[in-house]
Amino acid sequence: MKKVGLKDIAEHVGVSIALVSYVLNGQAELKQVSKENAEKIKRAAEELNYRPNQIAKSLKMLKTNTIGLVVADINYRFSTGITRAVEAEAKKANYTVLFGSSNESEDTFEELVNALINRQVDGLILVPVENSQPQIKMLQKSGVPFVLLDRNFPEIQANHVTLNNHKAAYDATTYLIKQGHKRIAFFNYQTTFYHLQQRNQGYLDALKDNNIKFQEHWLQEVKSSDRAGDIKRGIGTILTHAKPCDAAFFATDTLAITGLKYLNKHNIKVPGQLSVLSFDESEAFELFYCPVTHLQQPLAEMGRAAVDTVVGLIDHNKINRQVSLESKLVKGKSCRE
Question: Fewer CB within 10 Å: C terminus or N terminus of the chain?
Fold first, then answer.
């Protein structure tokens, strides 16, 4: 059975396609369509069993009530938590969320962004990947409403919702120092990401402000391609040094999980031999023999702020908003009291 379109109705009534469109989109009065013609068009649409093409209608109305969300890796707690938070907030604002996972791939990130734009989403919430600055700049030129979430690029003035990573790392390191630790190792990815670099700086500043002289081997940079190997070597370095470290602070949950696996395998007692603190939390921590002290990110608040920002951009076109939120230290039993 042939699908009835605007053209069929226009030919049946003997009017233009534009006139049919105005009437069926509720713009008859605005476009000064006569009541007689409006009635004929509505009657013809009913007789011909016309069913509106919602995609086409959305294009005409310039709104689809959808928001595109791209996360870094859906397998991790942070990504699933953020996705749930964004979906919950978007639903309150009558938006549906279409989402995808870039898996930290620059090419996949670009493909997802383009696919979502082609789906005519009203706005985008993006957790960018490394080296995705060209894509972000392209979005700025295109005028598509978007907000960066969790990660941002300081050289690009874009709307973003992030954590105050410097303060979080600073406060966590200070906590370890107050617990009596003097030789604190910090494990972080070798990366150009600004938010992770800020964690490095927060750690270093806390040491400096507490008159602890930083030792080069305390900062262990891990390649994502060899996380297990680099952490194994790093833990070996900090524990076999003439003055071994008494605490290890991991900059992400993935690093912490890998570190805890190694410590457990080699019977290195936590916190007896080494205190452990993780930047993020993970369900895997529940499998460890003692609760892991960690920094908890405000996922619900981040999701709310991201949706509020992108909806504001959609509705008002121009808005300048940079949101910086704070984490909470959740004390477990993995740090020496």
Answer: N
pLDDT block averages, 10 residues each, the chain of length 337 = 78 87 77 87 86 55 85 86 94 94 94 91 96 93 92 95 98 98 97 96 98 97 96 97 97 96 95 96 88 95 95 82 95 92
Domains of the chain in sequence order: 6-61 (1.10.260.40), 66-163+299-325 (3.40.50.2300), 165-297 (3.40.50.2300)
Tokens read off for 295? 């920094």
Alpha helix (H) ranges present in the chain? 6-13, 17-24, 35-47, 54-61, 77-92, 106-118, 133-142, 165-178, 194-209, 227-240, 253-265, 299-316
The CA angle 166-167-168, to the nearest 5 degrees, is 95
Residue 23 in tokens: 């009437």
Residue 225 to residue 162: CA distance in whole angstroms: 26
Q: Which H or E run includes 96?
A: strand 96-101
On the CB side of 298, CA atoms within 13 Å amount to 17
Torsion of CA 245, 254, 252, 311, to 10 degrees: 180
The residues pairing with 295 across neighbouring beta strands, listed in sequence order, are: 329
Structure tokens given for 194: 């600004």
* Residue 2 DSSP label: P
Phi, psi (degrees; rounded to nearest 5) at 94 = 65, 40
**Radius of gyration of the chain from its Cα atoms, rounded to whole angstroms:** 27
Task: Name residue, tokens 């790392």.
Answer: 169
The CA distance from 19 to 2, in Å, is 22
Say how far apart CA 48 and CA 246 lie, in whole Å. Answer: 79
Residue with token string 């031999």: 273
At 69, list the tokens: 């969300």
Separation of alpha carbons 13 and 317, rounded Å: 39
* Burial of 300 from C-beta contacts in 10 A (0-12 / 13-18 / 19+): middle
pTM: 0.81
Residue 282 is predicted with a pLDDT of: 87
